[in-house]
């Protein structure tokens, strides 16, 4: 029995929508999914439909609608603890992050999708497609080796469900690998991969297993070879027709026509075509148009312009590598922050007193800490710190990104505290700082350190287009008999941007 068979309602409608999406017809699948959502009350059915709707919007390139669609899918998945749904949602979320040029968030979703799909107990058709979509996400974000591993997993799971391995050919993975090699200067390696893709096309034609959505990919592989001066047996123009309504298909068809114009000895016309129709940087990578310009200039005999275009393509390719390195460093920093918050049991307490999202003490532990401090007759500065722009993050980027911002801010606060200071997540985006024995001067210095550390974070990568800041206010406990509640109220009333 397949995963869809367990649903209480609308199973055939959802299967039909799924087949349309697999064949590159997301525009036709979308109204079916909307009608299911309008009629269904079953939580699992709704979660599946919301996830598939999210995927359809990604395929159609409707970027403005992605944040709301992801938030709805994420909320539905939280109510239905199913590993397949969680894995499929995160695979689509990684693709959505790629469309929004958010590599850091995309990598987080890749890891979560892989872990969730690996936890699915049954090998069925839906899980196989989940691995397929994860492979696509890996590929689009530039992780070509992981993409090939995931597509092999899709074939293995699909075989258990009776699906032919040709169904998961996924030529787009190797096409993106091929052009990536070319962007980095390895044109010979690019041609080797393109030849393999074209040889695969001949095999699949013999078995009649070609998916319609793959037509443009095979067509572009043929056209790209022709642009690099290699003749092909199949007609690229034939394969560049049809193939569905996705943004990927549209852009491949246009860039394929540019390649064929180069191959026909009309480089000036090809340059005009490149300039006339912008293409998404997410389909074959931002360097691809620049690399095609270089080929155009070289074909026209303008080798200086060809060299300049090649250098630009290489620089764009290197920027992605730099961003991956930055993400790696951020990941190490996050782990160190988490270790720091857990290192001192007297400072951070046990799990029942700890906020599970940030690893910081929670409100209950804060109250215990301040009660003990006051019982010893001590005084302390108390700060209330909240995130400026947090509501916008949740609305524009979804709650998952909001959680990432909270974790990053928790790390910032833990790093800047003095040994013996106390920081807790109080509620929502509100954090409380307790500085034993500190007065106004020390509190102002801590505010400056917090501000500098928060400003140094690369929020543009995590939540692009959404500025993040902190606002803090300070008061005291133990002064004139003031308790925690009164101190928090006074601190909150005095909050201002740090």
TrEMBL record:
GO biological process: cell adhesion involved in single-species biofilm formation; negative regulation of bacterial-type flagellum-dependent cell motility
GO molecular function, one term: diguanylate cyclase activity
A Pfam cross-reference name: GGDEF
Organism of derivation: Actinoplanes siamensis
Top-rank taxon: Bacteria
Protein name stated in the entry: GGDEF domain-containing protein
Ranges of residues in domain GGDEF: 378-498
GO cellular component: plasma membrane
């Amino acid at each position: 029995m397949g995963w869809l068979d367990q649903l209480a309602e609308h199973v055939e409608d959802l299967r039909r929508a799924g087949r349309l999406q697999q064949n590159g017809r997301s525009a036709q699948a979308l109204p079916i999914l909307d009608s299911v959502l309008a009629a269904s009350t079953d939580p699992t059915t709704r979660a599946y439909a919301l996830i598939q709707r999210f995927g359809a919007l990604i395929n159609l390139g409707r970027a403005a609608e992605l944040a709301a669609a992801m938030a709805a899918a994420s909320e539905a998945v939280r109510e239905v603890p199913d590993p397949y749904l969680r894995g499929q949602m995160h695979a689509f979320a990684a693709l959505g992050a790629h469309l929004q040029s958010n590599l850091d968030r995309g990598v987080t979703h890749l890891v979560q999708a892989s872990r969730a799909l690996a936890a699915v107990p049954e090998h069925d058709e839906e899980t196989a497609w989940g691995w397929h979509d994860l492979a696509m996400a890996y590929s689009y974000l530039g992780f070509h080796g992981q993409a090939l591993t995931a597509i092999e997993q899709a074939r293995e799971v699909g075989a258990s469900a009776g699906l032919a391995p040709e169904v998961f050919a996924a030529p787009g993975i190797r096409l993106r690998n091929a052009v990536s090699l070319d962007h980095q200067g390895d044109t010979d390696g690019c041609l080797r991969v393109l030849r393999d893709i074209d040889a695969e096309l001949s095999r699949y034609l013999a078995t009649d297993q070609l998916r319609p959505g793959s037509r443009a990919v095979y067509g572009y592989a043929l056209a790209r070879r022709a642009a690099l001066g290699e003749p092909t047996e199949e007609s690229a123009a034939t394969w560049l027709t049809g193939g569905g309504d996705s943004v990927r298909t549209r852009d491949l068809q246009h860039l394929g026509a540019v390649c064929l114009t180069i191959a026909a000895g009309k480089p000036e016309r090809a340059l005009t075509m490149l300039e006339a129709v912008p293409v998404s940087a997410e389909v074959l990578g931002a360097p691809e148009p620049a690399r095609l310009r270089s080929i155009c200039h070289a074909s026209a005999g303008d080798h200086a312009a060809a060299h300049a275009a090649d250098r630009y393509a290489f620089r764009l390719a290197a920027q992605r590598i730099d961003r991956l390195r930055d993400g790696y460093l951020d990941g190490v920093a996050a782990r160190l922050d988490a270790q720091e918050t857990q290192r001192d049991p007297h400072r951070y307490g046990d799990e029942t007193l700890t906020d599970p999202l940030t690893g910081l003490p929670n409100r209950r532990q804060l109250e215990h800490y301040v009660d003990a401090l006051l019982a010893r007759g001590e005084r302390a500065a108390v700060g209330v710190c909240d995130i400026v722009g947090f509501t916008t993050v949740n609305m524009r980027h979804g709650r998952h990104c909001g959680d990432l911002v909270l974790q990053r801010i928790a790390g910032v606060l833990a790093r800047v505290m003095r040994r013996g200071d106390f920081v807790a997540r109080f509620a929502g985006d509100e954090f409380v700082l307790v500085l034993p024995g500190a007065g106004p001067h020390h509190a102002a210095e801590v505010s400056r350190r917090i501000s500098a550390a928060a400003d140094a974070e690369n929020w543009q990568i995590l939540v692009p287009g959404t500025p993040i800041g902190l606002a803090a206010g300070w008061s005291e406990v133990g002064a004139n008999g003031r308790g925690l509640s009164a101190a928090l109220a006074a601190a909150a009333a005095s909050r201002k941007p740090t």
